[in-house]
Amino acid sequence: MAAEGPAALLLLLLLVAVAGGDDADWVRLPSKCEVCKYVALELKSAFEETGKTKEVIDTKYGFLDGKGAAVKYTQSDIRLIEVTENICKRLLDYNLHKERSGSNRFAKGMSETFETLHNLVHKGVKVVMDIPYELWNETSAEVADLKKQCDVLVEEYEDVIEDWYRHHQTEDLSQFLCADRVLKGKDASCLAEKWTGKKGDLASAGEKPSKKKSGKKKKKEGKEQSEGARSLPEEESGVQEAAPLPHSPTDEL
């Protein structure tokens, strides 16, 4: 089925957005600022995830003299090693969102452009691109390079990450690692770029429901229920007024 009418126009615009521009614009590898930004972001996320356990490690294991003491996993070398060894693999969960500007082009979830293209294909629209359909969900060159640069950065600044882990966890890691060290004297503007997201955007950062909003909703529901109870007929509300006593003719005498 060929694309007709509005679908054809939409498809044309999408193809221009995806394949438009010269070869220099087609692949724009991540800058050092972008790499450090997302390394710090994933490090913070990984440490938050692994910081919820109450597991205790017995450091006596493996020592012939039996010396050692129990150490909390959250303060152990094992946690630091596990996080740093796997941190760059987490960047492969990112995709390139060409419709966004700056460092926000890197984000998890399918890009808006490819999500629309997938929907067109599912509706039977014939989409012809230089990229085969089977490769639409493959890791892009930019994301692959993001992971590659991450490996180099983590190895080069291993001591800095360890220093933060042991002595400076109260400080913001993006500032401690990126602004103050990796990008010192260099362009660090991408660190201030934030993606606010759009309604229904699956790739935007997950936000927890607002407690204030839910509280107002509950308060509103409670008010409606109480008003509804007051408006019920007397029989339904379970309260009835006492019926007047029968009027006897002898009472008039």
Strand and helix layout:
Blueprint: H1 6-19, H2 23-26, H3 32-50, E1 56-58, E2 70-72, H4 77-86, E3 94-96, E4 106-108, H5 112-122, H6 141-156, H7 158-167, H8 173-182, H9 211-231, H10 234-237
Antiparallel strand pairs: 1-2, 3-4
Helix pairs in contact: 1-5, 3-4, 3-6, 3-8
Care to give the gist of this entry?
The chain has ten helices and four strands.
Notes on the protein architecture:
There is one protein chain. The chain is mainly alpha-helical and 253 residues long. The chain has 10 helices and 4 strands. The chain has helices at residues 6-19, 23-26, 32-50, 77-86, 112-122, 141-156, 158-167, 173-182, 211-231, 234-237; strands spanning 56-58, 70-72, 94-96, 106-108. The protein has a two-stranded antiparallel sheet with strand order 1-2. Helix 3 crosses helix 6. It is globular. Mean pLDDT is 74; it is low at 1-24, 202-213 and 231-253.
Measured by DSSP, the beta-strand proportion falls in under 5%
The main sheet orders its strands as 1-2
Chain-averaged pLDDT: 74
| Order of SSEs | HHHEEHEEHHHHHH
- Principal-axes geometry comes out as globular
**Topology, number of strands:** 4
Low-pLDDT regions: 1-24, 202-213, 231-253
Please give the alpha-carbon distance between the first and last residues: 99 Å
State Rg.
Answer: 31 Å
Q: What does the main sheet amount to?
A: 2 strands, antiparallel
Structural class: mainly alpha
The tally of helices reads 10
Helical amount among residues, as a percent range?
40-55%
